[in-house]
Amino acid sequence: MKPLSLYIHIPFCVKKCLYCDFPSYGGCENVFEDYVSSLISEIKETKSNFSQYEIKSVFLGGGTPSILPPKLTGKIMDTVFNSFNIANDVEITTEANPKTVDEIKLREYKAMDINRISFGVQAWQNDILKSLGRIHTIDDFIKNMAQARDIGFKNINADIMFALPNQTLSDWEETLEKIMKLNPEHISAYSLIIEDGTPFGKMYDEGKLKICDEALDREMYYLAKEMMRDKGYHQYEISNFAKEGFECYHNKVYWKCDEYMGYGLGAHSYFNGERFNNTYDMDKYISSKGLYSIIKENRDKLEITEMYGEFMFMGLRMTEGISKERFFEKFGKTVYDIYKNEIEYLKDMKLIKETESNIMLTDRGIDVSNTVFEKFII
Ligand code: SF4
Q1: Is residue 198 lining ligand 1, measured as CB closer than 6 Å?
Q2: Probe ligand 1: pick from 13, 95, 121, 198, max atoms within 8 Å of CB?
Q3: Which of 122, 170, 186, 195 counts the highest number of beta carbons within 10 A?
Q4: Percentage with pLDDT > 70 across the chain
Q5: What is the pTM of this model?
Q6: Mean pLDDT over residues 284-307, rounded?
Q7: What is d(CA 84, CA 103) in angstroms, rounded to the nearest whole number?
Q8: Where do the structural domains in the chain lie, given as residue ranges?
Q9: Does the fold of domain 304-374 match that of domain 2-255?
């Protein structure tokens, strides 16, 4: 059977964080049931297309999936298990915001066969968490982490952020040190991006947000790489670090341009050479009752040149880079047939390097990764 991954979007949060431009909404408790009912219908409507596929990973993302009452999460997971062929070694992740989970909820997740929890922690300092508009304190996370371990979760991720307004290098060092003491198997470390249309974007435009300069941003990034390497976290992607054997399968599906189906509001899919997404209109999504003909938007059959480009700039995000053999298997041409000039130029600039089997970014290439990726975007 062919491998497939599922992304399930839960677009609800207790309240919006000040930096966030993800499709998620606060104060929507009154539509949880209707939303989940449309989501379930959507999954059921498409299931017959995937009888020849085996589900290797499921990712409940958001938003804040952990905001849902366990009864509703359970209905979603029952539908997934009843609709697809699920691999024995499937990775099932839910994102969780500390403060929205407790021991009971975590136990219910375990009973649903969710085997990976991804906590949105962001920073160790409560004043920084508050200034980001996060709803939790660090004690909430510490408590959740202990509960998850007691219940038997063996695969936990902590999302943390750097280059935050007013965050010092020593704040960042403390975040890294204290998080690693709690020993999660996986850590994602993202640099804050100020997005237009968010409260931070507005504050920035009005000169009311002191942002981190480029030099400090890089210093924080290098510190993270060094400290995590020293504690046995292997960097496998620009922003992702894991203990041996705990790289996130689901994330790698995106970077390897493998197939996945997205369900829920605004969820994106890549299947059969097509990229498409669901409507971002909540009323439309709920009233559609999951009907594909109504919710599917932006069907885009990729040109072969777009596929080459995506394979390169997504794959180069991983420290292992792109596999030359996989490029040939996928496209019937060597990577040099298509990108000889670009590869030579980037090698001359010391932004990429290669082994016999792979091509990957250098440390310098990681720092200017967007410039490298642009070479492969048509
Ligand atoms: S909890 Fe996550 S998805 Fe929700 S507003 Fe904050 S950053 Fe965005």
Answers
A1: no
A2: 13
A3: 122
A4: 100
A5: 0.95
A6: 88
A7: 29
A8: 2-255, 304-374
A9: no
pLDDT tens figures, 56-95: 999 999 999 999 999 999 999 999 999 999 999 999 999 9
Q: Which residue has the tokens 């790698």?
A: 252
Distance 213 CA to ligand 1 centre (A): 24
Which tokens is 85 given?
Answer: 């062929």
Closest atom of ligand 1 relative to the 133 alpha carbon: 6
Query: Given this model, what pLDDT does residue 294 score?
Result: 86
Centroid of ligand 1 to alpha carbon of 17 (angstroms): 5
Q: Whose CA is nearest to atom 2 of ligand 1?
A: 63
Q: Return the CATH superfamily for domain 2-255.
A: Aldolase class I (3.20.20.70)
For the chain, give the mean pLDDT.
96
For ligand 1, atom 3: residue with the closest CA: 63
Residue 11 to residue 218: CA distance in whole angstroms:
32
Q: Which fold has domain 304-374?
A: Arc Repressor Mutant, subunit A (1.10.10)
Q: Is 16 in the pocket of ligand 1 (CB under 6 A)?
A: yes
